[in-house]
Amino acid sequence: MPKVSVIIPAYNAEKTIRETIETVRQQTFPDWEIIIINDGSKDKTLEIVASIEDERIKVFSYENSGLSMARNRGISKANGEYIALLDADDLWTPDKLELQLLAFNNNPQAGVAYSWTYFMDVDEQGKVTSLHPSNPYAFAGNVYENLLISDFIHSGSNTLILKQAIDTVGEFDPTLKSCEDWDYWLRLATRWHFVVVPKHQIYYRRSPNSMSSKVEIMKAAALMSIDKAYQAAPPNLQHLKSLTMTNFHKYCASLYLQHRPDFDGINQAQQHLRSAISIQPQTLLDKVTQKLILKLLLQRVFPKQVSQYLMQKIRQPAASNSGLKL
Hints:
This protein is of the alpha/beta class. It contains 13 helices and nine strands. Strands 1, 2, 3, 4, 5, 6, 7, 8 and 9 form a nine-stranded mixed β-sheet that branches. Helix 8 runs antiparallel to helix 9 and helix 9 (241-259) runs antiparallel to helix 10 (263-279). Residues 316-326 have low confidence and may be disordered.
């Protein structure tokens, strides 16, 4: 039986699936299986997967049912002691599994290991246009309160989860069309300790077309997740909701500024920033808020191409230090 089951849901992933599979095959820890859930793909996803000769890869095909259901199906097929989730367009550093398993060995009470993330923006041709690292969060142990405030794990491609921990919290919520990861991490955090690998090991790919069409969906799902989270939160943590809502509005402003830089999107970003500042005026002292205000002003003052160029220059230094080679 493999130590780790890597679950890759795939829907029309022909442009990225080979590279994503290779990022697993290049892991320094070799005792794994890949379970690919073909979620009703209509392109060449299956052909590409079939062309990769590796007996550790298993493929199961279903009608399209969405990301949460695909993950649930993958978990049901998994044989590993640990479950690693990986979206079909994301990447890992070669030492991702090795270091997360080491973190488990050093923290036997933990049920979830996570690392830091690179946000990798790509153009329509798949070329990397910008790469910037997530904040170096070091929350460990009981992280429920930290997660309630914001999803510092950032993507479903990040965590390595003890199968025993998954068995205690059940499946991903298929009614959520976005933010299903955050909902799941919160449920795990109510029962299990988390451990962090202090290294950027996940490359989270964001393409302009896919993101721009999902902004409204992501915003609505985030609100649903917040309501669900605070319905389950104990009374002594209800006061944190104002901070969560501040982070929600900053999150929405960021989505609009980056993926909807049209007149309506800029107006939406401005409204969300105003809401964040109204709820918590001290957020003006936060560097994230200050950067969002700067981006908003750039898009208000300069033509679209100029503002996008300037924002890319602001983010550019991270890419040169990442070691990413594509």
